[in-house]
Amino acid sequence: MRSLITVLLVLAVTLVPALCGNTQRPDPQPETPTETRSRFAALDDVRLLANGLLQLGQSMREFVQKTKGQINDIFQKLNIFDRSFYQLSVLASEIKEEEEELKKTTVVLTANNEEIKGLSEQINSKVDGILQEKSSLQGKVDSLEEKLRSLTSGLMTSEQTAEINGLRDVIQSQEQSIAKLLEAVREQSDQLIYQRSKIKVLEEKLASHSFAQETIERTPEIFNSEAPTLAPYLTSSFSSRTEILNLPSDCSELFNRGEQVSGVYAIRPNGSEPFMAFCDMSRGFGTTVIQRRRDGSVNFDQNWDKYENGFGEFKGEFWLGLRKIHSLSAWGNSVLQIQLEDWKQDRHFIEYRFHLHGPESNYTIHLTHLSGDLPDPMSNHSGMMFSTKDRDNDRQQDSNCAHHHSGGWWLNTCGDANLNGRYFHMRARGRSERRRGIQWRPGQKNSYSLKLTQISVHPVPTLPSSSSFETDHFQ
């Protein structure tokens, strides 16, 4: 292009004098006759110059069209960036408002906890006094019994009989008072446990809000980082064995006790160590949520240790952990609920009878289809061990499906279903890239990455109507 312009400029400089003619008059020479020159350039030169100029114009037009296309692409990317930045700003303001409300609630609950502690100490002191009185009365009763034994040869007087009966009435009334006080102490203890659980939940929520705020302020590279580990088992956070024994076995039992607000609670399934779990109470019964995907804020391409112990944030996206899921379903009387939403806002669900073996079998899963409006690709996964990128337990001998397709799952071969795949905010371009997404793909249908997923567990219901599953909303 540059060489063509140079040639055209040289031609133009050469031909300009020929086109314009010579304006200087030659010196008169009488000896030689005057030579006449043509005022016009040769036709071939003019055509050559015209063709060069046409080629130059065509090249300039192509360059302008290409530049316009690049500018349009830049404007489109700037518009997408502006929309994303606005959404992040709105989300950040909402998180700040919720964090302030949680802080206020934490202060109120802490004050209530202190009042309950003071009341419990007063009751304990009264109980100690009553126990001392009981021991003194017991001593008097013992002395009277000695007197009775000494008088076995004779008859007791009416005064002695009345005294003994009076002492018995006093002892009975004292025992009733002690029983009432002990019941009050139990109620106060239950109240203390409930308040501590509430405070623990608020602390978890505050921690999750802080992490979410940091996530928004950081760059999108966080999606490739290691996911935060969920709260560990909570044996050390309880002050007595009584508190541990009083914990519900799962969210269903918690709902039956009267707690009907969705949130994070302490549970103790089947006599295991207690841990925190998210309870979904929005459908007329309680379910324990074991997985949730909704915005791609957590990287689910994690190793075996992370999938075994759990990762993510209860407020956003998380995986509860294979050890905890096993404790929820160890008896084989559990229902697994899977709720999905695609990018067209279509929502569906499916339910299975569910049993999960322990770590000795790499958490082998067993599923029996119960109900739902989704096709069933998981029938090919029943009886499979769990696989991650660093522990390959699938049946594909020549490849590691968890490594190639991202995320950990009960994989048979590389296909059909994987709800722990990579989160795509828009449709991936390549077929191989789409297969790495969140999939629920029976048969030979095309890969399609999902927008929202939620997997929950609850016991097999006693009444058929209680197992109905609504798909109106996600928690």
Kindly list the characteristics that best describe this protein.
46% helix; FIB_ANG-like; 13% strand; nine-stranded antiparallel sheet; alpha+beta; 11 strands; protein-macromolecule adaptor activity; glycoprotein; 475 residues; single chain; 9 helices; Gamma Fibrinogen, Chain A, domain 1; signal
| Overall average pLDDT | 79
Total helical segments: 9
SSE pattern, N- to C-terminal: HHHHHEEEHEEHEEEHEHEE
CATH topology annotation of the domain at 221-475: Gamma Fibrinogen, Chain A, domain 1
- Distance between the ends: 62 Å
Radius of gyration of CA atoms, rounded to a whole number: 41 Å
Q: Estimate percent helicity.
A: 40-55%
CATH architecture name of the domain at 221-475: Alpha-Beta Complex
Sheet of most strands:
9 strands, antiparallel
CATH superfamily of the domain at 221-475: Gamma Fibrinogen, chain A, domain 1
What's the overall geometry?
elongated
Total strand count, please?
A: 11
Please give the CATH class of the domain at 221-475.
Alpha Beta
Uncertain runs are 19-26, 215-220, 464-470
| Structural class by sheet pairing and helices | alpha+beta
Proportion in β-strands? 5-15%
Protein name: Angiopoietin-related protein 3-like
InterPro entries: FIB_ANG-like (IPR037579), Fibrinogen-like_C (IPR036056), Fibrinogen_a/b/g_C_1 (IPR014716), Fibrinogen_a/b/g_C_dom (IPR002181), Fibrinogen_CS (IPR020837)
Signal peptide: 1-20
Subcellular location: Secreted
